[in-house]
Amino acid sequence: MIRTTVRQRPKTHSHKGLTDHIQPGVRILFVGINPGLRSAAIGHHFAGHSNRFWKLLYESKLVSEPLTYQDDWRLPEMGLGLTNIIQRPSAGIDVLKPMEYATGQKRLVATVRRYHPHTIALLGVTIYRALFPKQHSERICVGLQDETLAGHPIFVLPNPSGRNAHYSYQAMLIAFRTLAEVTSNPLEHPTGGMRAAGSSKRP
């Protein structure tokens, strides 16, 4: 009797967070706030029942085939990457502490310097405000920003969580489609004149 061994991809379940899925030269690095409890339990990014991230990826044509949270590990082969600014899972972001954002910022900067993404896509204005606290009182619009992180362009997207009631699905889709258009041509990403994270704002 011949026995065959089927190799299975190792689970990434961790109470400390999820495994990043990034490769050097990544085209777009998606940065979430932190893993939800279901994502942490299952071991996959954006696994919440109401999270629209995977549907938005496909319908914006950032990926060429429908994907689910079980395919998160495949994104690097498509030129995309996944990480979170805070690794600790939680049911919501209200329990996250300022120190966790500060620590997460240092980790994110190190990750960007290591992998050199063409564009950093922040999934939520909350992350942008954490990275640039001096602009906390200003209205932040989704889209390509003036600031950079470690010299790399930043694009702010709506948080795709089902808890986000500030944006309709159509508004989210428009933002994701704009990201797809902007990143399709490297010449559309001028970095001259952009401000680095932590720098003062020009008058």
Helices and strands, with pairings:
Elements: E1 28-32, H1 37-42, H2 53-59, E2 80-84, H3 98-115, E3 119-123, H4 125-131, E4 143-149, E5 152-157, H5 169-183, E6 195-196
Short description:
The protein is α/β, with parallel strands linked by helices.
Q: What is the percent of helical residues? A: 25-40%
CATH H level: which superfamily?
Answer: Uracil-DNA glycosylase-like domain
Q: In the CATH hierarchy, what is the class?
A: Alpha Beta
Oligomer: single chain
Q: Which parts are unreliable, with pLDDT below 50 for 5 consecutive residues or more?
A: 1-15, 187-203
Strand order of the largest sheet: 2-1-3-5-4-6
Number of domains: 1
Name the beta content range. 5-15%
Shape assignment: globular
Run of helices and strands:
EHHEHEHEEHE
Whole-angstrom Rg = 17 Å
Main beta sheet strand tally, sense and closure:
6 strands, mixed
Distance between the termini: 77 Å
Helix count from the secondary structure assignment: 5
The CATH architecture can be named as 3-Layer(aba) Sandwich
Class from helix and strand fractions: alpha/beta
Mind explaining what this structure looks like?
The chain starts with 27 loop residues before the first strand and ends in a 7-residue tail after the last strand. The protein has a single domain (28-185), classed as Uracil-DNA Glycosylase, subunit E. It has five helices and six strands, in the order E-H-H-E-H-E-H-E-E-H-E. The protein has a six-stranded mixed beta sheet. Helix content is 26%, strand content 15%.
